[in-house]
């Protein structure tokens, strides 16, 4: 095996007693719920501070119980099911959207796998479980949540939720492609798809330094994946309706809101694991303190990194305006996907050369040669394309008349085309004169039927 490939040792997983598995699962669930409650209050406080407002200050000390009060209020509100809804799918949709949001946290390491902790006398890892294909598992459960959004829009029996659900589905699918390419760059470089092995591979240098393009791509895609500002397209009709969840109320609406914030925590935890060293202490602390990555301390570093990424979500919402839908899709399909694919090919080339024991200078030479070749080819193609465009732009005679009904249905004119003049509609008096055989005195358009009768 190449020295650059990670040695997956998952033998420490899968041997915990059932009650310890339950405790760890409950801890993961509680960690997500508490982080969500805190994040909602924190978001409202930070946005209020950015907008020179007070923010929540009524429930609990410093308003810290505001999100809990909102949850209780939503549970006590009337649960309405619209008349034309498909009731079974209508009820299942928020559940399908919420449950996958909790599942990805199962493979996220809160601490080193080799440094086990003691819980009621049993030694166990600070991770619920790990898989040889943990990254594929994360992508799979993230994709299932899309079904909840689509089914919510369709089952409501209303037009606006259906359009909002389709728009959200297209957005999430578009950004998942670039996200998958960013994941592929990570496990190509680390040689493993196990989350604990990926964190172990960052013992000397985090992947945010080695794979900066993958990190930037993932940061953008995780904002689009969670439907957060400035990519909050489900709420783009905020003056009328709220998108796919327009017809929902009470606890069902709360589950959609919960799924959004849990997804924020989950993608932040995944980003921390893949690019920010996971549970590892940051550089100054890890060098001066040997015990920084032992015991319960790794969980502290992990939580701090997750909270910093959540603050990034909040900062985006309070800073950037919402983009148009065409700008959102153009960014996903024409920018992120091509860049992520090219970067993935570059990472694969570098890893293949390093596995063949090529030196850094040789790798840099090969990569630079390939980049220069691509730039020269693109320049030549653009030059020929520009010459062809100039030839096509030259007038070749009288342009064909524009027919607005040429395709069988009305279409707007293209640039350079004009609509034919609309014939003036005859007045009622003029039509009566023509039918009765009288003189058409308004054929020149200078008078109407009234003037003709007065004459």
From TrEMBL:
Q: What is its main location?
A: membrane
Q: Mention one GO molecular function.
A: oxidoreductase activity, acting on NAD(P)H, quinone or similar compound as acceptor
- Residue runs in coiled coils: none
An example GO BP is: aerobic respiration
List the catalysed reactions.
a quinone + NADH + 5 H(+)(in) = a quinol + NAD(+) + 4 H(+)(out)
Keyword annotations for this protein, in alphabetical order, are: Cell membrane, Membrane, NAD, Quinone, Translocase, Transmembrane, Transmembrane helix, Ubiquinone
Cell location? Cell membrane; Membrane
Q: Which family does it belong to?
A: Belongs to the complex I subunit 1 family.
Q: What is this protein called?
A: NADH-quinone oxidoreductase subunit H
Provide the organism lineage as a comma list. Bacteria, Bacillati, Actinomycetota, Actinomycetes, Kitasatosporales
């Amino acid at each position: 095996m190449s020295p650059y490939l990670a040695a997956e040792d998952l033998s420490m997983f899968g041997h915990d007693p059932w009650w310890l598995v339950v405790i760890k699962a409950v801890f993961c669930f509680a960690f997500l719920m508490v982080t969500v409650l805190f994040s909602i209050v924190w978001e409202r406080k930070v946005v209020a501070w950015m907008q020179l407002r007070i923010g929540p200050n009524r429930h609990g000390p410093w308003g810290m119980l505001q999100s809990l009060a909102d949850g209780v209020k939503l549970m006590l509100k009337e649960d309405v099911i619209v008349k034309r809804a498909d009731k079974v799918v209508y009820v299942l949709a928020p559940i399908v959207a919420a449950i996958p949001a909790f599942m990805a946290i199962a493979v996220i390491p809160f601490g080193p796998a080799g440094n086990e902790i003691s819980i009621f006398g049993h030694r166990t890892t600070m991770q619920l479980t790990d898989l040889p294909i943990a990254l594929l598992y994360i992508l799979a459960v993230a994709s299932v949540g899309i079904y909840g959004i689509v089914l919510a829009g369709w089952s409501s029996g209303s037009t606006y939720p259906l359009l909002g659900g389709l728009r959200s589905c297209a957005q999430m699918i578009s950004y998942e492609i670039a996200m998958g390419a960013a994941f592929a760059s990570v496990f190509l470089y680390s040689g493993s798809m196990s989350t604990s092995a990926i964190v172990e591979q960052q013992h000397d240098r985090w992947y945010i330094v080695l794979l900066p393009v993958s990190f930037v791509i993932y940061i953008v895609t995780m904002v689009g994946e969670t439907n957060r500002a400035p990519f909050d397209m489900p709420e783009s009709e905020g003056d009328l309706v709220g998108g796919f969840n327009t017809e929902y109320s009470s606890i069902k609406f709360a589950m959609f809101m919960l799924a959004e914030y849990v997804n924020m925590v989950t993608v932040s935890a995944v980003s921390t694991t893949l690019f920010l060293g996971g549970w590892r202490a940051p550089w100054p602390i890890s060098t001066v303190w040997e015990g920084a990555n032992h015991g319960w301390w790794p969980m502290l570093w992990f939580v701090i990194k997750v909270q910093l990424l959540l603050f990034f979500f909040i900062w985006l919402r309070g800073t950037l305006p919402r983009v148009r839908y065409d700008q959102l899709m153009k960014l996903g399909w024409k920018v992120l996907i091509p860049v992520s694919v090219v970067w993935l090919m570059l990472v694969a080339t570098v890893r293949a050369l390093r596995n063949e024991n090529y030196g850094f200078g040789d790798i840099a030479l090969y990569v630079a040669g390939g980049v220069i070749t691509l730039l020269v080819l693109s320049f030549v193609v653009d030059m020929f394309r520009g010459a062809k465009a100039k030839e096509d732009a030259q007038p070749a005679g009288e342009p064909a008349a524009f027919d607005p009904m040429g395709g069988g249905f009305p279409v707007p004119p293209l640039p350079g085309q004009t609509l034919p003049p609309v014939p003036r509609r005859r007045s009622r008096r003029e039509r009566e004169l023509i039918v009765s055989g009288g003189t058409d005195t308004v054929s020149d358009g200078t008078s109407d039927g009234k003037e003709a009768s007065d004459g």
